[in-house]
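S.,

Sequence below, as promised.
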Amino acid sequence: MSVRQRRVVVTGVGLVSPLGTGREKTWAGIQAGEPGIAPITLFDATGYVCNFAGEVKDFEPHLFVDRKDIKKMGRFIQFALAAAAEAMTQSKLDMTHEERDRVGVYVGSGIGGFEVIEREHSKLTTSGPDRVSPFFIPATIANLAAGQISIRYGAAGPNLTVATACTSGAHGIGESFRIIERGDADIMICGGAEAAVTPLSIAGFSAMRALSTRVDDPAHASRPWDMSRDGFVVGEGAGILILEELQHAVQRGAVILAELVGYAANSDAFHTNAPPEDGEGVRRVMQLALRDAALEPSQVQYLNAHATSTPMGDRAEARAICAAFGDAAPALLVSSTKSMTGHLLGGAGSLEAGITVMALRDQVAPPLTNVHDAEPDCGFQLVRDKALPTAMEYAMTNSFGFGGTNASLIFKRYVPDVHVHGS
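The prediction came back faster than expected:
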């Protein structure tokens, strides 16, 4: 257990998801159990075994990026800038009064500008090398989401990117937590973004037989822990959090949404794209996060699970949760909001971290939808169909990715500390 000298709080959340552009629109859709999955419109998916996805249908890039710059940025960068703008606005950070080198950015992406790669490769093969855009590289590479955010806000502190598949967004937040803890920054703009609803991406995941093929009912195709689940659904979007050292936030009068109190990362060291049946790595990462937060399992009331709607992954996570929480598992509230948003890949962990912060803020456990016949290994309380108002002090969120990479984050409901505020 670490001795924590610098506490870290959340002062801003920005979300872009298949339920809408914006934090409150996404959160309202989550609470209502709205489906964000529908037939693909971003390209002609005729002939694909999976022809549906979680697209951000209301996204207008010109609201967040100058029109002349849109073509210089992949869609994942545009999502990241939109989410960062919302998070920065909520946090009321005034960069003219901040030490710029004490503000950093850490934004992950599993893939980067997938649609730009496909488009520019098509130009190369059909029209020759002279037709490739000069903006191809900066529009594509994964670190340009963090880079563009850093440039926009003048954040001159650590500027980093992580590409750990579907754990990228959670790692971006967790590693930012560590940066502030050890004193290398006071503020971190962090999270993840992904825009992988593209022909090659959908074809590739389909070739792996990883995607749902429920073409007759796409709105209900993402069904974590339902016995009839047949694969995940690709989503797109971004989640960006503003993390801040507690004293810094208090001194500038920020509204504190939650405190980040625990983080752990590890590996299954088992397989490229499948967990061990007992979820042993997942069990360990949750227990490590609990230890980092100095918590007993019974102190956590809600868990936003990674559960993607794949047969093996969901079952392994269910077993891991039961093993990690032990006697406390039957009282633990659990849901997977991927049932509504689909799987944002590198943006999933940060979207779900933002949702978890909102759950603590409003004291509402978000629901799991589309479950008709629940996996028998679920020895915990699934929050089925409707959001559940409940008293929550601590909430956990899990993320796992190809290569066996895992992360768990634990947030705490923030209650003003008289000593901190009076010092």
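The chain has a mean pLDDT of 96.

Coffee later?
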